[in-house]
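Need residues for this backbone.
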């Protein structure tokens, strides 16, 4: 997989190369800052479940998904007024909101161009996914600072914002490899379940990890009024701690209040309950693998979801 990862990195950098040095710097900023490249890796592995090679089309499909992810981060950082991402300054903090928005648009445009080169089905799929990302973001924004946010809103939001792109990454791998439709559908469900587990774990880490581990301030979601599953479960658990947390939330937090809110969530059962929900999605992802051809790629897919929880 090391060689495939290098193919992904090379293709990403080539995709954002233009004649404008300034735009190149903006577009490359978060790419060169690093990242696990989970979505393009998923596309490559999905394309190989029937034993075939890692095709050029799978690399291109994977980086299209990664460019959508990166472009959406540029936009998210403007919305959240974030100062750091992946341990470096955000584009909006370094160059301004206008540049960040346009650079994010550029990355989405490049992703769409690449998807179109892979055929109408992939192009339509990626376009639909970008729409679902927006729907997930809107659902989240509807409930900003809402201490009564219902859990279905949370799950709907993360399915759009996160799981849809993992699902698409896996599906594109199956499409470009010409796999049978039942296998493509199983890969799609795998990506959705994996993406749901991934986002829940990420939301738990926003509560439990340090600033250094995150590359951004811990509790950032609460500060921005985004109440994720561990927070919602803490508030719904009842008792003095739940009431105290609810009283702290509902408006922007300063550093002292944020630390107090973090302490309450960390001490309660909300984190454990959220991880139980993540485990349920891990189980769904593993079950989807039963519908895939036997082989090394399927084995890798089967074992990967549990790593999300084991790494905590």
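Answer:
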């Amino acid at each position: 997989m090391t060689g495939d990862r290098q193919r992904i990195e090379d293709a990403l950098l080539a995709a954002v190369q233009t004649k404008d040095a300034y735009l190149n710097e903006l577009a490359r900023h978060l790419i060169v800052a690093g990242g696990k490249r989970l979505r393009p890796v998923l596309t490559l592995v999905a394309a190989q479940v029937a034993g075939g090679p890692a095709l050029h089309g799978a690399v291109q499909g994977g980086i299209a998904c990664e460019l959508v992810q990166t472009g959406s981060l540029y936009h998210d950082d403007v919305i959240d007024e974030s100062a750091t991402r992946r341990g470096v300054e955000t584009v909006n903090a370094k160059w301004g909101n206008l540049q960040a928005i346009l650079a994010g648009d550029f990355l989405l445009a490049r992703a769409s161009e690449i998807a179109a080169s892979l055929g109408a089905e992939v192009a339509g799929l990626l376009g639909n996914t970008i729409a679902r990302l927006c729907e997930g973001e809107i659902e989240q924004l509807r409930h900003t600072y809402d201490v009564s946010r219902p859990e279905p809103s949370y799950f709907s939001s993360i399915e759009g914002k996160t799981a849809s792109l993992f699902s698409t990454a896996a599906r594109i791998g199956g499409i470009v490899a010409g796999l049978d439709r039942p296998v493509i559908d199983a890969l799609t469900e795998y990506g959705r379940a994996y993406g749901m587990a991934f986002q829940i774990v990420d939301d738990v880490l926003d509560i439990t990890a340090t600033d250094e581990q995150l590359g951004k301030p811990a509790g950032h979601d609460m500060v921005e009024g985004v109440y994720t599953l561990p927070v919602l479960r803490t508030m719904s658990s009842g008792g003095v701690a739940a009431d105290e947390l609810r009283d702290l939330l509902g408006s922007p937090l300063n550093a002292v209040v944020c630390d107090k809110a973090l302490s309450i969530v960390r001490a309660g059962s909300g984190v454990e309950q959220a991880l139980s929900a993540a485990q349920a999605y891990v189980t769904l992802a593993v079950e989807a693998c039963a519908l895939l051809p036997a082989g090394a790629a399927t084995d890798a897919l089967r074992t990967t979801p549990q790593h999300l929880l084991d790494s905590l």
